[in-house]
Amino acid sequence: MTMVLYAALLVVGVTLLALTAVRALAGGIADSPGRTTSARPASGRSARQILEERYAAGELSTEEYQHRLRVLQGRDR
Fold first, then answer.
1. pTM score above 0.85
2. pLDDT at 62
3. Is residue 69 within 8 Å of 50, Cβ to Cβ?
4. Residue 4 in 3-state DSSP?
């Protein structure tokens, strides 16, 4: 009985390993589902738009907003 269980686990393990290898070779494995690698977020908003929205919502102080804006513009590295 124990031998059958080990054999079944081995078959499942080898199958999962093979599926993972096929997905990796096909480029189908990502960090998370739906994650994109473009510079613009999936929402279509730029980093500056998001920064402006956060500032307008009061999530950032004026100093923090200005600093982050300079960083985005490449003037403060």
1. no
2. 94
3. no
4. helix
- pLDDT per residue over 23-68, tens digit each? 888 776 655 555 444 455 566 788 899 999 999 999 999 999 999 9
Q: Please give the single-letter amino acid code of residue 73.
A: Q
The token pair at 33 is 């589902």
> Can you read off the two tokens belonging to residue 39?
């510079």
Among all chains, which residue has been given the structure tokens 């999936």?
42
- At 6 the pLDDT is 92
C-alpha 77/C-alpha 71 separation (Å) is 6
The CA radius of gyration of the chain, in Å to the nearest whole number, is 24
Please tell me the distance from the alpha carbon of residue 55 to that of residue 62, in angstroms, as a whole number. 8
Domain coordinates of the chain in residue numbers? 45-77
